[in-house]
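yo

u said u wanted the structure for the complex thing, so here. seqs first:
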Amino acid sequence: MRPFEYRRAEDVAGAVAAVADHPDAVYLAGGTNLVDHMKLGVATPSLVVDIGHLPLDQIVELPDGTVRIGATVRNSDLAAHLMIRQRYPVLAQALLAGASGQLRNLATTAGNLLQRTRCVYFQDVSMPCNKRDLGSGCAAREGYARYHAILGGSAGCIAVHPSDMAVAMAALDASVVVTGSTGERSIRLVDLHRLPGDTPHRDTVLTHGELITAVDLPPFPFSRHSAYRKVRDRASYAFALISVAAALDLSDHRDGAGGPTIRDVRIAFGGVAHKPWRATAAENFLRGAAASVENFREAADVELAQAEALNDNAFKITMVRNTVASLLADLTRRQVGDIGGDLAGQEQKP
Ligand SMILES: Cc1cc2nc3c(=O)[nH]c(=O)nc-3n(C[C@H](O)[C@H](O)[C@H](O)COP(=O)(O)OP(=O)(O)OC[C@H]3O[C@@H](n4cnc5c(N)ncnc54)[C@H](O)[C@@H]3O)c2cc1C
Ligand code: SF4
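structre next:
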């Protein structure tokens, strides 16, 4: 490991100044991703600024009903918080689907958002990787790409963003509050991470020294009708092959086909792109449509029309479609149950 200087930040302004002044300085939060990368030689900072003691570890409700999550709130604490479990179950479920109990006790909200891809070639400094070493090539394109992107990839990089939490936050229309040397700004979470294009070494739109201080979850009436589903190689302690976060708002009105109609819907995919993928085409297809498994599948197909897969990861297209259909069908059953109906006979096709 390259020798580095360690500093503990006493306040936000001091943390930002310390990192902004050093081109290769980084923030240290829980360290569960950064320290691994320092040991592997993937990250070689000369200065590490520890933000673990900044007063950013609270979850509060703002006067307009927005829930503000401090950047250093631990993943375990966030998942266990009553307000999150009741109002945003999709977020609690996504957090609990990630990593392990021990890791979640250390991992922070901002660190989780800014964790780097798990592409095996990115983590192996002996392999070509444009994200780690721009211009060196992309070993995944001709190599092991089972976990890689089917949406929004580029010739230079097909890595996916590994966070579960970020997918739920994308579906919830979250915003990230950021402080830099020129002041504070708010970024929609769906705009925080980038597609790789020809600059895959940049994961996000943050500039050097910008510190995430909080994530805001706006209130919306059907956020409690939300859920997360992750498909992975093992039942626990594994990153997503794909995942789907969704929130569904059904009308009481029954259409001719016997089902309720969809007033509003939020859908995001994980494990498919360089960023959490908000499925706006699928959402647009579903608004006003009948809540049927056929429509859920078709909505997924509309979104996936732009998918580009390799041999290794072509299975993800079917997997996303089936997961969208089964998750939305479950959310429909739960709500129809609430208002006294059911969706009998609308099981998923094999
Ligand atoms: C074995 C293993 C399994 C895992 N499985 C999963 C999984 O299934 N799903 C999942 O989602 N995650 C998984 N993770 C990843 C884990 O969730 C992340 O490592 C963790 O969330 C990172 O948070 P941290 O606070 O430790 O970040 P750190 O490692 O401290 O930092 C990560 C990055 O964020 C930057 N950073 C941190 N805080 C800030 C801030 N406030 N402002 C600006 N930059 C900041 C750091 O400089 C660094 O670049 C797994 C990790 C391991 C080791
Ligand atoms: S997919 Fe991206 S991260 Fe993986 S080897 Fe290619 S350039 Fe590197």
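The two ends are 50 Å apart (CA to CA). Residues 26-34, 51, 71, 98-99, 103, 106-108, 110-112, 114-115, 162-165, 211-212, 239 surround flavin-adenine dinucleotide (ligand 1) (CB under 6 Å).
cya
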